[in-house]
Amino acid sequence: MRQFSSAVETALLEEYVDFFILIKLEFSSNYYFTSLPYDLDYDGQTWSSDGGTFEYDSPQTSSIIDREAYRVAISDVSGTMQTEIANNVVGSPMSVFGGFLDASGAPLIGTDDVFLIYKGTVDSPTITNDFEQRLAVFEGTSPMADLDMVRTLITSKDGMDQYSATDTSFDEVFEDNELELKWGKK
After folding, report:
1. Which of 81-85, 103-107, 177-181 has the lowest mean pLDDT?
2. Other CB atoms within 10 Å distance of the CB of residue 14
3. Rounded CA separation 153/160 (Å)
4. What count of Cα atoms within 13 Å lies in the side-chain half-sphere of residue 67?
């Protein structure tokens, strides 16, 4: 069972519980976004509210090992995320954290107050534009996503050279070599 700090436990006993989300994207630069309506200083970083965290999946736990996906959508008015996507962010780390607000509406940001919701890598980045807003949508997968992956391996001299230029295992496969094999009874 997850252990919370006493401040979080107190906040959870309130009649109305309010929370916030923090999203960390590790692309060519690191990006820190918060769902709060104001910027937040946490863990030595300023988490920006300007990104407009529009959508995020609910936290969930899974008792089976599978390709669990997690989705976040961020406003991309400036086009920064579109540029990052064009530069290939697939496989880049993505983390989502959650936290609670106390009774006065202040975020609880102690080391034991903020908890990890999701940690994985970006799998399917897209840009959506419906003429009212442009969103960068990132679907992340867990490290177990590789269990589903199918990798094509071309078994030829040129195909092996793509993996290692010093590999000589296929150098003589397609040459015209004759070998006399003796088999059967003498």
Report:
1. 177-181
2. 12
3. 8
4. 8
Collapsed DSSP state (helix, strand, coil) of residue 12: helix
User: CA-CA distance, 28 to 26, in Å (whole number)?
Assistant: 7
In whole angstroms, give the CA distance from residue 175 to residue 7.
73
160 occurs within a structural domain: no
The DSSP string of 105-149 is S-B--STTT-EEEEEEEEEEEEEEE-SS-EEEEEEEE-GGGGGT-
The C-alpha atoms of residue 72 and residue 85 are separated, in whole angstroms, by: 14
Render pLDDT for 54-81 as a digit per residue (tens, 0 to 9).
Answer: 777 775 565 665 556 788 999 888 889 9
Amino acid at 133: Q
Q: Is 83 helix (H, G, I), strand (E, B) or coil?
A: helix
- What one-character DSSP code corresponds to residue 20? E
φ, ψ at 80 (rounded to 5°): -60, -45
Q: How many domains does the chain have?
A: 1
The alpha carbon dihedral of 157, 161, 165, 168 has a sign of negative
Residue 177 lies in a domain: no
Q: Does some domain include residue 17? A: yes
pLDDT for 120 beyond 90? no
* 180 domain residue, yes or no: no
Tell me the residue range of the domain where 102 lies: 6-147
